[in-house]
Design a protein that fits this description.
22-stranded mixed β-sheet; 56% strand; 2 domains; two-stranded antiparallel sheet; globular
């Protein structure tokens, strides 16, 4: 082998070893995998479709996506990947002008019926952010902060150890077995449900306009609770103490459960409020 050929071979091998990620894409299928350090963020965003995320036992993030719908519409959708110091953003971009960046998706859809279903596997410590305009977003088993959003669809976060933010306009927000210091769930027209411990000095915020709010608390509850409503009713499995500035009015309830070192804020215009002990019979 000549010296030139040897140097070229070594250079090619070094380039492959240094590559942080790999991706593959045909007309309707996309895949990407790569290493992300703890604290870095994977962001997925789409217009129509779904996002499903689960924990990975390995060290790499793995993302696949499948386009669905009429062939002509699928041909106008591209799956784009952008990487920066904060992490990786992968989005479904519609049309030639489609692009995505961290925190936002400038894609535009006009008479396009194509959808994209994302599936991701995320290793421990990697932050996740997911957004879908029309479709469900579901996350399970992660050990870092999670933020999910949908305009028309359900959002669900289950068995997550970390802070959680879950928002939807016309769907249900479900936060189940969530263990975080800062947790919030919002829906305009759907129910909001939370299950998990209320941690010392934690902050918990749940809001809906017309949906019910249900909290199923694991273990003891020590929190100052503020409720704002127009026509909703409140039920509690926990003894409620009114005092030290506490208020009980038709539209505002302000009370303490236990020592009150955590804070819970609840609001719904017409929905009811349920403060439950996890595992209570019939609850």
């Amino acid at each position: 082998m000549t010296r030139t050929a040897l140097l070229a071979g070594l250079a090619a091998a070094a380039a492959l070893a240094a590559a942080p990620a790999a991706r593959a894409q045909d007309a309707d299928h996309f895949s990407w995998h790569g290493a992300l350090a703890r604290g870095k963020t994977l962001e997925l965003s789409g217009i129509s479709g779904s996002i499903r995320v689960e924990a990975s036992t390995g060290t790499e993030v793995q993302v696949t996506a499948v386009k669905r719908g009429p062939a002509d519409d699928r041909a106008e959708v591209r799956i784009l990947t952008e990487q920066d110091d904060g992490g990786v953003t992968i989005c479904a971009a519609y049309g030639r002008s489609g692009s995505c960046g961290r925190g936002n998706n400038h894609s535009h859809v006009r008479d396009n019926e194509a959808s994209v279903d994302f599936v991701a596997r995320v290793p421990a410590g990697v932050v996740f952010e997911g957004s879908m305009v029309s479709g469900d977003v579901e996350v399970a088993g992660l050990t870092a902060s999670v933020q999910v959003n949908s305009v028309s669809g359900d959002v669900a976060v289950r068995h997550v150890h970390g802070n959680v933010s879950a928002h939807t306009v016309s769907g249900r927000a479900t936060l189940e077995a969530v263990d975080g210091q800062r947790v919030e769930g919002n829906s305009v027209s759907g129910d909001v449900e939370f299950g998990g411990p209320v941690l010392e000095n934690g902050r918990y915020s749940f809001h809906s306009v017309s949906g019910n709010l249900t909290l199923r608390v694991d273990g003891s509850l020590n929190a100052h609770v503020s409720i704002s409503t127009v026509s909703g009713d409140m039920e509690s499995d926990f003894p409620v103490t009114v005092g030290g500035g506490g208020r009980f009015g038709r539209r505002n309830l302000d009370f303490t459960v236990g020592s009150g070192n955590a804070r819970i804020e609840l609001s719904s215009v017409s929905g009811d409020f349920h403060l439950r002990r996890a595992g209570a019979a019939g609850r």
